[in-house]
Design a protein that fits this description.
about 375 residues; TIM Barrel; eight-stranded parallel β-barrel; about 45% helix; elongated
């Protein structure tokens, strides 16, 4: 048993599997290959890249990703069915995630079986996957609603059968961090299997639950770029990677300075534009308007900086709006190559406040230039 928690953890990104399962999302082969290359280039160590049971086209796309000869280890997802498992053979991947419901809700009302059948299925299918030359992760679907004693039996059965990993899935996104911490610690105390956390964001807690799992002894965590995924999505790669590193000192060897292009590629390929205020990757998260904040930021970025935008290959951006001060007006115009006095800044600010109140958007560079030119016009100076 592991007596102490290690400070290393492996991110298994499932953008190309669970991310694509988001309603209405469908990556082309070219997009799938580009996303896989991007994730591999920034150092993501594991990628879950598809579901072979979807058919020939999906299998061909999985082989195409495998043919890229990436550094990342590759996984596919499969129901715990013999026919589905057979399709996972000779795809060039390393690990199969054999998924099965482990809560009584799913065992009785989805599978229409009993607990003994689940345990026997695990024994049977793990052996078959190993005979195919694949490593095995047992995906515990709906682990968050499973009986803890039965969940331990599932993990023990999986380990005895030869699986290397158990995926604890909060399938319907109902857990909270303290419960996750306790659940993972309990499993960790009973098994030497790798433990992977798979969190959904239905209550907005996917990142918090993923970090809690890491603290509880999980060896792997699932993420998706931008939090893409079914319903409310999965734990965002960007949030998990920085959270693990900055908050808890985990070793995360992912180059986040190159992440912006990965994020934008996935946003474009999925047809899901980023929210302006999406943490870490949204356009507005390093944008400052309020005069008090801008003043403090200009004096020392640490005054209003919890995350250095440079960590994500970004920088602070000053904008003008209702809550700006005259010093911000002077600074923004200086960045545009224009000099304004404090008196002129006050006049411009009054116009900006009127503009944004009526348009509900920040002024464009063109609008700011027009305000500046108006101040310089002889007619304006004669009447004021």
């Amino acid at each position: 048993m592991r007596d102490t928690q290690t400070k290393t953890i492996i991110i298994d990104d499932t953008t190309l599997r669970d991310g694509e399962q988001s309603a209405g999302v469908a990556f082309s082969l070219e997009e799938k290959l580009a996303i896989a290359r991007d994730l591999d280039a920034i150092g993501v160590p594991e990628l879950e890249i598809g579901i072979p049971a979807m058919g020939i086209e999906e299998c061909e796309s999985i082989r195409a990703v495998a043919d890229l000869n990436l550094n990342a280890r590759l996984l596919v997802w499969s129901r715990m069915r013999e026919a589905d498992l057979a399709l996972c053979k000779d795809l060039g991947i390393h690990i199969v995630d054999l998924s099965i419901g482990v809560s009584d809700q799913q065992i009785q009302h989805k599978l229409r079986r009993d607990r003994a059948w689940v345990l026997n299925s695990i024994r049977t299918h793990v052996r078959k996957a190993l005979d195919m030359g694949l490593e095995v992760c047992i995906g515990g679907e709906d682990s968050s609603r499973a009986d803890p004693d039965f969940l331990r039996q599932v993990v023990e059965t999986a380990q005895a059968a030869g699986a290397r990993r158990f995926r604890f899935a909060d399938t319907v996104g109902i857990m909270e961090p303290f419960g996750v911490l306790a659940a993972i610690q309990q499993l960790r105390s009973h098994s030497d299997l790798e433990i992977e956390m798979h969190a959904h964001d239905d209550l907005g807690l996917a990142t918090a639950n993923t970090l809690a799992a890491a603290l509880g002894g999980a060896t792997h965590v699932n993420t998706t770029v931008n939090g893409l995924g079914e319903r409310a999505g999965n734990a965002p790669l960007e949030e998990v990677a920085l959270g693990l590193k900055r908050l808890y000192g985990f070793q995360v060897n992912i180059d986040m300075q190159q992440y912006a292009s990965v994020s934008q590629r996935v946003a474009n390929a999925s047809g899901r534009p980023l929210s302006w205020q999406k943490s870490l990757v949204g356009e507005g998260v390093f944008t400052h308007e309020a005069g008090v904040h801008v003043d403090g930021l200009l004096k020392d970025p640490l005054n209003y900086q919890g995350v250095d935008p440079a960590e994500l290959g970004r920088e602070h951006h000053l904008v003008l709006g209702k809550h700006s001060g005259t010093q911000t007006v002077i600074e923004v115009y200086a960045q545009m190559g224009m000099t304004v006095s404090r008196e002129q800044a006050g006049l411009i600010l009054a116009s900006i406040r009127h503009l944004v109140t009526n348009t509900k958007k920040l002024p464009t560079a063109h609008e700011l230039e027009n305000l500046y030119r108006t101040l310089q016009s002889p007619v304006y100076n004669m009447t004021h």
